[in-house]
Amino acid sequence: MSIHAQNECQVFTENKSSFPPPNLFPFIYKTILVLRLLLLKKHSFSTWDDSFGKLESHCEIRKEKKHCIHGTEKIWENFLHFYKYTGIIPFDKDDIFNMIGVINVNAFGAFKAEKDDSANSGKFRFVCHIEGCIKYYSFPNQ
């Protein structure tokens, strides 16, 4: 199953999800990313585990930070919106909180700027477990 689009599109279709969800910027993009990764974990655990399962999430530290708890609540509200038709969410707030941690701790941002062409410019965020090794100068959680 593809990591990009296929899994979450099925969720949106089966749940007759409407757009936009209640919490947009800056939560909408992270909501989709968290949903995509949780669905990958659910549908293809070995792929998820090979790529993301051993990455640090700093959950214990983040539990003490109000903005981390607030962000999880906003993304949870978006999940409730996307799953409101069936009312069955296969994840809980702890799953979301942990996945946000994996993303925040291990993601790298990049910006592509095309000279005089804002249509081709954009911000990108990616998680790469090899880069995570470089970032920590070791293999996280191993």
Which helices and strands, and how do they pair?
Layout: H1 6-14, H2 27-43, H3 45-53, H4 59-62, H5 66-82, H6 93-106, E1 107-112, E2 122-127, H7 129-136
Antiparallel strand pairs: 1-2
Helix pairs in contact: 2-3, 2-5, 2-6, 5-6
Summarize, please.
55% of the residues lie in helices and 8% in strands. The chain is mainly alpha-helical. A two-stranded antiparallel sheet has the order 1-2.
Please tag this protein with its features.
single chain, mainly alpha, disordered C terminus, 7 helices, 142 residues, globular
What does this structure look like?
The chain is mainly α and 142 residues long. It has one domain. Helix content is 55%, strand content 8%. The chain has a two-stranded antiparallel ribbon with strand order 1-2.
Report the average pLDDT across residues. Answer: 78
**DSSP helix fraction:** 40-55%
- Round the Cα radius of gyration to an integer and report it: 16 Å
Distance between the termini: 27 Å
Unreliable residue stretches: 130-142
Count of DSSP H/I helices: 7
Largest sheet: 2 strands, antiparallel
Q: Count of DSSP E strands?
A: 2
User: Secondary-structure element order, as H and E?
Assistant: HHHHHHEEH
Structural category is: mainly alpha
Order of strands in the sheet with the most strands?
1-2
Strand content: 5-15%
**How many discrete domains?**
1
Question: What's the overall geometry?
Answer: globular
